[in-house]
Amino acid sequence: MASTSFEPGALAPSGMIPLSVPLLSGNEWKYLKECLDSGWVSSAGPFVDRFERMVADYAGTQHGVAIVNGTAALHTALLIAGVEPDDEVLVSTLTFIAPVNTIRYAGAWPVLIDAEPAHWQMDPQRVADFLDNECRWQNHELRNKANGRRVKAIMPVHILGHPCDMDPILAAARKYDLIVIEDATESLGAEYKGRKVGHLGDIGCFSFNGNKIITTGGGGMIVTDDANWTAKAKYLSTQAKDDPIEYVHNEIGFNYRLTNIQAALGCAQMEQMDETLSKKRAIAGRYGSALGDVPGVSLMREASWASSNFWMYTVLIDGKIYGENSRALMRRLAREDIQSRPLWQPMHQSPACQDFQVRGGEVADLLHRDALTLPCSAGLPLDDQDRVIDAIQAGVR
Ligand SMILES: Cc1ncc(COP(=O)(O)O)c(C=O)c1O
């Protein structure tokens, strides 16, 4: 029987259609060779600077700081934003767990916010309700009425390549002087009202993990317009080194810098970004037109105000209408050598997150029950796309 146990982003067994594998078809070898030939292999070097510039320019921000992975980028972002132990940070409940973990790394507490049903992103209404009704403004700070904790930041997670509805989230944040850290790890290239994600809030974070829209093997980046935060992110991510000769450190820092080798891959990947994005959007368009009429299958929707990078193409399966539920379909696809995957267990259901507050959660629960992500590597051949489409249509023949 076919297995779905290999990691997304890893090489798939022959004949298997994997969920997502990287597209490495540009200057990757050439740039890696330059690193090896020059000896610049570690956490400084020309590719690091170039990659930071490329990603910042692409997102439209003044600055970029390359970081060892997206999780470390989020952690560093929280620290430079001034999030302190016992603060609260609002974050999406329907997400991969990394952003929630980072809030705890900073010693702060997540307040989990449900998704909205149309585009599955952080529900801005629930954000406003929590801030307006459950918090009080006191001595120039916002405090949770129930526990007295300071509310310091909002971390909207742009899941699956689609942006959150940011205007109301930003309005709520501005009203109460909260910092907005975008978890844009899945959504490089996505746009909200014509502006790139990562440059919508105060700080944006990207991931270049193997399954992301571009990859450096593992990697991340902080983008922002703020020069002080940029300097602080570089400082904290290089062990907070105040005197590099005498090894003086005034703070506890981290070894969070990206290597030149990883950045070399990143530069080659960024050169292909436009092409990768159009391939991802073409796959989404093809799936959308082929599966839109299948009874019991609902498509991932792109808002009129958004441009998605369609990082992970996901459908909802109504088991009663379709004839099998999302998990049964996943198992059938696996038997046909097609890898698919449900969405993450919502954070409020996660055993690791039972101490955290949640607002809503029902929408995320339904999405978790019904969602199935389909193979959508940027380089997925048309024949393989057809195999996926046929297998899903076959369920109702
Ligand atoms: C929403 C989200 N946030 C953060 C991360 C963490 O990124 P990384 O794997 O680069 O640490 C990921 C993915 O891995 C993610 O999907």
Write the layout of secondary structure elements.
Elements: H1 28-38, H2 46-59, E1 63-67, H3 70-80, E2 88-92, H4 98-105, E3 109-113, H5 124-134, E4 135-138, E5 141-144, E6 150-155, H6 166-175, E7 179-183, E8 191-192, E9 195-196, E10 203-207, E11 220-224, H7 227-237, H8 260-271, H9 273-291, E12 297-299, E13 306-307, E14 314-317, H10 319-322, H11 326-335, E15 357-359, H12 362-370, E16 371-373, H13 382-394
The site of pyridoxal-5'-phosphate has 14 residues, from helix 3 and helix 4.
Explain what this protein looks like in three dimensions.
Strands 1, 2, 3, 4, 5, 6, 7, 10, 11 and 15 form a ten-stranded mixed beta sheet that branches. Helix 1 packs antiparallel against helix 8 (260-271) and helix 3 packs across helix 7 (227-237). 49% of the residues are buried. It is built from 13 helices and 16 strands. The protein folds into two domains: 28-271, Type I PLP-dependent aspartate aminotransferase-like (Major domain) (Aspartate Aminotransferase, domain 2, 3-Layer(aba) Sandwich), CATH 3.40.640.10; 273-394, Aspartate Aminotransferase, domain 1 (Alpha-Beta Complex), CATH 3.90.1150. Helix content is 36%, strand content 16%. The chain is globular, with a radius of gyration of 21 Å. The chain has 397 residues and is of the alpha/beta class. Pyridoxal-5'-phosphate (PLP) binds at residues 69-71, 95-96, 98-99, 157, 183, 185-186, 207, 209, 220.
